[in-house]
Every structure is written in C-alpha cells, then in structure tokens.
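User: Fold this; tokens only.

Assistant: Input:
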Amino acid sequence: MGNYKFANIVINRPIEGPFTYSIPESLKEDLEIGSIVEVSFGSKTVTGYVVGLSDKCDIEKIKPINSIIDKTLRIDSGMLELTKWISRYYYSSWGEAISAAIPGVLKKGVSVKRHKKEKHDEVSEEFEFIDGSDTHLTPNPEQQQALDSIINSMSGRLHKVFLLHGVTGSGKTEVYLQSIAYALELGFSSIILVPEISLTPQTVARFKARFGDKIAVLHSRLLGSKRVSEWKRISSGEARIIIGARSAIFAPVKDLGLVVVDEEHETSYKQEDVPRYNARDVAIKRAELSNAVVILGSATPSLESFHAAKNGKFTIIELSERIDSRLLPAVDIVDMREEMTRAKKIPIFSQKLKEWIGKDIAEKKQVILFLNRRGFSTFINCRKCGYVIKCKRCSVTLTYHFDKKKLACHHCNFTMAPPEICPECNASYMKYWGLGTEKVESEAHRLFPAAIIERMDSDATRKRGSHDKALSRFKDGQIDILIGTQMIAKGLDFPKVTLVGVISADTALNLPDFRSAERTFNLLTQVAGRAGRSDLGGRVIIQSYTPQHYSIQAAKTHDYNAFYDKEISLRKELYLPPFCHMVALTLRGRKEERVFKASDSLRASLEKENKSKNIEILGPAPSPISKMKGMYRWAIFLRSENAENITSILKKALRENKTSGIIITVDVDPS
C-alpha cells in the first residue's frame, strides 16, 4: 500500500476516536484504508477499522497493529462515508456504526473452511415448499407508467426516491422485479429490503425463480459459513441482487443502481441497538451517495414518507387497482359492545364471525384469524382486591401461557406458576382476563371441532423451519383455520383464503404511543389484504369496541387518504413527526432516586446548551414501562425541526452528566 507508518483506527466502543497505531513491517504490503484489523485497546484485544493512514505521529509509545483479520475483505470508501453519516445522525461513534454494517462472523475472521460442518444452516433460506415458477408478466398501464419513471431515472443515473403506493394485491412486486431486471441490463446491482426475511418466503421464491444464481439472501438465520460465502459472492460482484432484512442495506455491492424497501412503513426496519438507525432512511442516504434510485413500496406508507411525497421531496406513484381488477374484500365492522350486551359476557367470536367461519369451512375455503398479541390470557387478577400479577423485575403484567401452565414476562423471560390464591389478600378469586392466540385457538376448537386449526405466533414458531412448514401446510390446504399475530398480517398470498377475522382491532389503539392510530390502520389494512386474492372473492370481519375510531373506519373502506388527512392534521396541531424530529433519551439504573436525580441534572444541562431555544425539551418523566429487568427507567424527549440541532447540544450535555450506575441511551427518530 506504500510506506505509511501509522494507521488511524476506530473501534466498536462509545468512544470518539480515531486512535493511532503503528503499522508493523509485516503488514505494510496488505494494510489499506478499510482493512479490518485486530488491535490492543487497554487490556483487551478488539476489532478495529482502518479509516486513515499517515506518515507522522506526535504521540510516543504507540502500540502496533496486531494483525489483519482477513486480507480479502475491505470496507470501501462509500461504506466508510455512509457509516460516518450514520454515526453523526444517529448519535453513535464511527466504530459502532461500522461494526453494525459488518456481520459479526466477518469481524472475527471466521473462514469458510472452519464452518464446513454447518451444512444445515441453509434450511430456512431455500423456501423449497413454494412453487417458484414465475413468468415475466406484462405490466398493466399503471405498472408501466411506474416502470417508465423508474427506468428514466436509472438510465440517467439520477438519485430519486419513488414512493410506490399500491393497494394490497396491486402488483408492487412485479414493478420491483422488472426494475431490477432493467438495472441488471444497465450493469447495476440492486438491494431489496424486506421487513423480516422469514415472513416473506413467497417473495424470495419469486425473485429466485426470476433471477436464479444472481441472488444472494442475507438474514439472521444464516449461520457462519453461509454468511461468509454470501458476503464474498456479493463483494466479488458474482451476486448482483441482494435480498435481506434491515442489515442487508450494508451489503458490499458493486455499482449500486437500485434500492427497494418493501413495506417501507414497517417498524422492524428500526434497529434497537446502537446505532439505532432506520434502514429505510439509511437506504435513501446510501442511494444518494451512489446516485441510485430508491423505491419505497407500501399499501400503507408511513406518514413521514407520504408527507415527503406530498411536499415534492419524493415522487409518488399510485397503483390504485388490484391485478386483474380483483375487487378489494368487503369489510364488515362488528360492534363488540352490542355483542357483549346480547351475550351477557365478553365473547371471543361475534355471531357474524361464527356464521361466516362455519359457512367457509363447509365450502372447503380457508380462514385466517388475526390477533394482535400472543399467549392465552393477557393477565391474571384478583376479583376481590383487584391485585394484578406483575413481573418482579419489570413493571408489566405477566402473560399466562396455557400449554406450559405458566405466567411469563415478555420482557425479561421471568416465569412462575399461576397462584391459586391472591398474594395480596389471600382470597381464592383469581380470574384470567384478556385474550391471547391460545385462547382463541381453544375456543375455535370448541366451536368448529371438525376443522384443522393451526396457531402461528412467535411462541409456536420458535423452532427453526416451523414457520415455513406451517405456511406450506396452509398453502397445500391441509389447514382450515390459521390463527396468528403480526406474523400472518402481511406479504402472504393464499388464493383459497376468503375470510379474514380480526378478533380485536383495538389492542394497539390503547398503547401510550402517538403512532398508535397509524399502527392500527396499517395492521388492519394489511390483514384485510390477505383476503380475496383469487376469483373466489373475500370478506373481512373486524371486531372492535371502538368501531367509530377514524383509523378503523378508514381501514373499512381501504381509504389511506382519508386516514392520512385526519392523522396529519392532528400531528401538525400537536407538533409531532413528520413536522419535527424527536430524540428520546432513556436513563436507567437500579436505584429510582438516583435515576430521577440524573434525569433532572441532564434536563438542566440541556436547557443550558439550548441557547437558540430552537429545541423543545419534554420531561423528565417515568418511561411507559417504568421498570424493566430490575432497572428503573426515566425518559426525556427533545423536539426540533432538525435532528442535527438536537445531536449538536447532546454531546456536551451528556459529557457533563456521566453518573456511575446510570446508563443513558439516545434514540433519534424513535419508531
């Protein structure tokens, strides 16, 4: 590489850096900017990333670099630039941002040879159960118009963001496929992001049928050898089309021309650990740095994206009709308050839903029942004193799991046997409240004993491959009723499904979250889109205790614009995104008094730094879950028209507020 004597290196720690190391003679030939190396840091040996080289250094006693982890792997200049932006915008160190972009197995220098025995790691990636036959369909006029706009920008190497707003079943995937085919013709690579790879086997199968070996699939279920070999196929240019979840946006593709973000509104694009990036926004930035085109696809775009399209920042493309002009399913809303009065108890199934399930099963059609939570019963409480059984380490109620006869915390995995008498007043009036997938399943078995019923939630599909097997059996008609949570809400296409029942539409509406109405509308619209995807037609029955809510009414008529108009005016009035950027600070510690004092002190420092007064500071206040895993949690929210206004004052304020035993997390644009 030349005769450089020193390297500037960043590491995966919340420390700014870069740090200077000397380059041993033995490494000078192979070391470059972007090399992944091993260095001593304090008393530990850590992975580092070379971000600069120099001849001079004023510091004495410099440690040498220990080794280069893999001479064939290097982070290119585009990825260094992207990760630098991530570290600035999402408030992390550059080393943490680079580390998020590199699969763990590569950081350890694991070779393909060492992983030869892991042949079984390809199980869920192949999706063999789905008929992969796929023909190049002729686009309808709307699709053709969309393709013309996308192709024009790609040919001219113009960075542009297209928001492809298409009702469920309108053929968005076909637009993606033909755009990718055109990118290949032009010599460009493409990245396709999907919310969770395990949820979209049909999409992957269609891509594989169309493009064969040019595809690489990246997802969390891939074990070491497969991940390394896929990474090398991409980096060598052998794989030109990359499909994957969130982190696939960092794939080392050559000549990126197109990025597709399918279901762009999905919250799973937001990373929960440092750096807490949103893959959709990182995709737009990466495409901008490469002069590539972005397609954001959704039947229910996020308010942020639709607002950007309305204001001309993105270009909107509408697909308003379903393929072959199939009608959107009829949606009925059942007022469960009336059902409760009639039945004198809280019913799981309304009369209408029972009748339609019975009718469809008799006609050998299939039914999906959707519930926005898992477990058998939401909580157990005492009817005498009102005591609710909560987790000892988290301020949340424990959920009862019928198959294990156990109460479990979904935050820290604490479990206990359900008590027969109240721990508070010793009365034996413990009552099981609420509704879970297991309870719906047991009631469905009681009402429809002849039906074959399968439950699909994250508890039922923990085993590798069990998710795919359940979908395969459903597709083959071996299951009559599929009961599930979010897992079955989107991306699946089953022609025999003529009825979708939403057991309770209100669950998400009751959460303390300004996006709760948006989440409810999205979920109901996506679930409704699973019905009537063939000539058999379809029906959706939504059971609700608040049927008049605008999110439920708009979902009934599949009317995104009506929902958007109502929601955007409320957001504007309350000064919420997309009219501002938010940063959430969470302080955690074992002693509540210390957490409160640290929050107060941090607020004072932020006030002092906020000289231009262009940032609004809210809190401190207890977090919605005020205790988790034994840690008390307090929150401060910052709002401003520009996110970087906020991160600029944070640095100094957080430096001044380092308190032992208190952990502070920073989440920019929380989802």
